Amino acid sequence: MNKIATIQRIVDNGVVAVLRGKDANEVAEMAEQSIAGGIKVIEITMTVPSALKAIEKLAGKYSSTTSDPDKFAIIGVGTVLDPETARAAILSGSEFVVGPSLNPATVALCNRYRIPVMPGVMTIKEIQEALELGVDIVKLFPSTTPSAIKSIKGPLPQANIMPTGGVTLDNVGDWIAAGAVAVGIGSDLTAEAVKKGDLSLIAGRAAQYAAAFKAAKAK
Q1: Is 95 among the catalytic positions?
Q2: 43, 56, 57, 95: which is the annotated catalytic residue?
Q3: For the chain, which residues make up each domain, given as ranges?
């Protein structure tokens, strides 16, 4: 798929479900529930045992190019530490790559294959380096408060920022208002469902996040 189109779809959908589970089957079910609730951008982290199996399964079921809303989703990979892992995930069907830190070799690999890559950054220096490497969206991780984006946008107004960690239903609107192009949601999306042993609860939580993002963008 065209890299620019993928990035645009991620930005349009705005909420990325960052999913971790005990195994590939559990995380795939988490993804199914997230998609059913309206979060259509899914990040399967490589900390999940057999994560590539989950990515392959989901990529085979969903498409980022379909006009069928029931089959539309963008499947990506997270917690990527090196280019070897990124390449394996891409071959399994991942359409974007996310890392906890900035690894130039991983960025180069993704750029070579025209796959969006979102490395984790914390400082102005890291963000500038990411931009110079050709990164389109940086992952602010760990995120602190929405005011951090304003501080970053001072010297680097051209940076596209996606905070991950610290984003909740109560502050997602504040992050968007501050200039975030998208947000990553982790345990706040899945914790209650896992605790109660009912993954179907994720769909309801996902619907709340999708609605909150839409409301924030409409302001």
Answers
A1: no
A2: 43
A3: 3-218
pLDDT tens-digit series, residues 5-29: 999 999 999 999 999 999 999 999 9
List Cα–Cα distances, 77 to 13, 15, 74, 116, in angstroms. 17, 15, 10, 11
For this structure, is 139 an active site residue? yes
CATH no., domain 3-218: 3.20.20.70
- Residue 80's nearest CA partner among 55, 59, 104, 101 is 101
User: pLDDT digits over 156-195, tens only?
Assistant: 999 999 999 889 999 999 999 999 999 999 999 999 999 9
185: number of CA atoms within 13 Å, CB side?
32
Q: Which residues contact 102 (CB under 8 A, 6 or more apart)?
A: 119, 120, 121, 126, 129, 130, 133
